[in-house]
Structure formats: structure tokens, C-alpha cells
Amino acid sequence: IACRASPSTGFLRKHNICMVSDFFYPNMGGVESHIYQLSQCLIEKGHKVVIATHAYGSRKGVRYLTNGLKVYYLPLQVMYNQSTATTCFHSLPLLRCVFVRERITVVHAHSSFSAMAHDALFHAKTLGLNTVFTDHSLFGFADVSSVLTNKLLTVSLCDTNHIVCVSYTSKENTVLRAALNPEIVSVIPNAVDPTDFTPDPSQRPPDRITIVVISRLVYRKVLLVSNENMILNIRIL
Q: Membrane-crossing residues (predicted)?
């Protein structure tokens, strides 16, 4: 999300941004950490950021995280795999209340799997707000789940202001699935801060290479499969 300079003052405009997704803490995953870290960076830039997600068990209402990050845990019913039902109507009063109360100027929805993300895009357009969508996963084109999701994505993104993908492969996949103009799709690769994962060189075995793979074991993610007996002197964790 870029700051726009005012033509009269020359100062960068500060936005009130609402991140919306079914997937956020205390649930764990790449989308959850992406939303949290992006929100913290935007707060450091001077923007106001709030997050809207569904309630997780007893975690309901409003909670505050680091740097005053405000999270709305809305009372929406989970349908499958931490995703709510896509009806548009049941989430309208709740999301509209958040957008109006926080004076939101940009709605940033995350993940094609998230029904709340699709609902938020519809409601934001109704309120005349700017919208951004970030796609985190790769989808197929043949199975029933992918066909239905792709049709919904085509409708959701038809007039979204900008789309972000986490890789160039993801961009090509999203452009094909949603019939998008590639010019409105940007690529911002996922990354980690290597200083947070610096190993102790003194503990490194001199005769073996150790590779650490951090990933969910699902089909659409990149999965490294190896046989330690076939690859000599390499240990994979």
C-alpha cells in the first residue's frame, strides 16, 4: 500500500487501513504472520492499522497487540477449516461498523480461501473505499473446489484497486484464475529476517550439511522430499 503525496502540501498522506481475513492469531500460519508483520511495518510508517477476523473460541471482541495494533474478533460462525460462510449479508453490519468507527480509507483483504476477505471487498466497494487484495496460495483449475473459488475470485477482484501476490508464479496463477489485467498485480515476495535465525557456528558439524525446511505439509505448498540414505552427509530437518 503506497502513500500518496498531496499536490497542495507535498506531505505523504496517512491512511486508516483495515486488514481483513479469516486467518489470524491465535491460529498459526503464513497468512497470519504476514498480516501481523505487515501491520507492524505500516504502523511504523505512521499509518493507523486495525485487523478484522472472526472469533476464535473465547477470544471475542476487541484485543490489542504490539504497538497498539487493534484486532476485532467478530462473532461470525466458522464453516470449514477456520473459514466463515460466504453470504455477504451476515458480515455486512459488523464489517460496516468497523469501517465507519475506525474511519477506514483502505481495506486490505488476504487469502482466496477467506470468506471474510471476499465479503470485505464487496462491502468496501459499497462504501466507496479503496481496496487491496493479497493472494498467498496457488490454485488449480480442474477440481471442484478450485473452480468455485476461481469464479468467486473473478467477481471479487473485478474492480479491486490493486492486487498483491507473494511470488511471480502466484501472480501468473492469480491473473489466469481471475482474468485480471497484469498491470494491476504487483509481486512482493515473502521474506524472513535472517538475523532472527542466525545459527551458532561453533555448533556446526564439520562433515555434514544441515538443511532446515519450514513449511506446512499441504499439496499446494512447495514440499521438499528427500531420502537421507540417498544424499550423503546431508541432514534435513
A: none
